[in-house]
Amino acid sequence: MTHCASLIDTLRRRGFRITPQREMIIQALAHGNAHATAEQVYTDVRQRSQAINLATVYRTLDLLVDTGLASRVLMADGQALYSTVQHGPHLHLVCRQCAATFTADASLLSDIEQVLESKYSFQADLQHISLVGVCEKCRGS
Predict the structure, then answer these.
(1) How far is CA 41 from CA 3, 72, 83, 85, 128, in A?
(2) What pLDDT digit, counting tens, does each position of 82-130 carry?
């Protein structure tokens, strides 16, 4: 079963209706780049169907995030990026000065996850994290 079909099947089993619009949105997110904005998903789906609006895209992406099938991260510019769980945990380092984005080793998050669990009994969702700071170039190093 493809990743897209798996997401759709999971939503159906959980009692959610799968409209043609929802299916196209899920397909766009699952088969697109690792990350997409709601506007990028909307543009992709809009090429296949005029029977879609941006609010439907946002509602579907929110549903995927709420059900744990996708993650959302806010970038330094305030824009939300979405990805399906297929892409696995990932860590972005975003420069607040030049807006450059770097991917860091997501295994760095395991220590944080363990500390949060043991010290605070808190299970953090660390699938898609963005840390804002200043890159080496902007620091002048």
Answers:
(1) 17, 13, 11, 16, 18
(2) 888 776 677 878 888 888 888 888 788 878 888 898 999 998 877 777 7
Question: What CATH number is given to the structural domain containing 104?
Answer: 1.10.10.10
pLDDT band at 27, cuts 50/70/90? very high
* Residue 91, domain extent: 3-135
Within-domain flag for 22 = yes
Instruction: Indicate the helix (H) or strand (E) that contains 42.
Output: helix 38-46
Any domain includes 140: no
Angle between the 38-46 and 20-31 helix axes, to the nearest 10 degrees?
120
| Domain count for the chain | 1
Q: Is residue 141 part of a domain?
A: no
Q: Which pair of tokens denotes residue 52? A: 């879609």
- Mean pLDDT of all residues in the chain? 86
Q: Which residues pair with 47 in a beta bridge?
A: none
